[in-house]
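REQUEST FORM: STRUCTURE PREDICTION
Request ID: SP-0412
Submitted by: Lab K.M.
Chain count: 1
Length (residues): 214
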Amino acid sequence: MRANHEVLPLPTTENDWSHHVAEIEAHVASQQERHFAERFARAMELLGDEKPEVRWGGIFALERLAQRSPQEQSTVSEVLATFMRRRAHWSRDLPEQKINSEIQLIATVLGRRRWPFQNEDRPLDLHATNLSKAHLPFAHFEAAFLYDCNLEHALLVEAHLQGAWLARSNLKNTNLDGAHLHGADLSEAVGLTEEQLAATRWDAKTIFPAHLRP
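STATUS: Completed
RESULT:
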């Protein structure tokens, strides 16, 4: 025997339709939030694993979540940036450090993020991070906090650093060819030379170290 199924009446008025659509949208949003929460928890579990190869999986999982969930892009960026700051903290009194492959991967993911940085409700915060010899051509770090960073020998060719805060960072031998420095703050940057600046793009809002002010 076939089971009897109650046939629900379709909405008949514009208000009924609006209410019906709103209920469907709310249900879909609730399902999406639940799925995101489950995947985010799993990605965080991977990121906290002891094995580097497993943590790499967590990094890529977070990148995919950000691409699929625009409303959570700021959260993903903040998680990855916090991981970087803790694992690659830098200060001038520390011995010379070399960037490891894990930090390079996260910096690459953040620099190539396909979601617009305008979707982030706060600047990308990578301050006091060791990015020595990092390979970041064409990276998008607009308005990012990069102050007190070690960028010695880093490759930032054509990098988008508009409005970025690079105060007191170590820019010795940093390759800035074609870098976009419009509105960037380079005050008290260490190791920056006229030769480096000559190959960059900047404007009247760019703040230079005292010894290089045009």
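NOTES: The longest helix spans residues 14-47.
Reviewed by: T.R.
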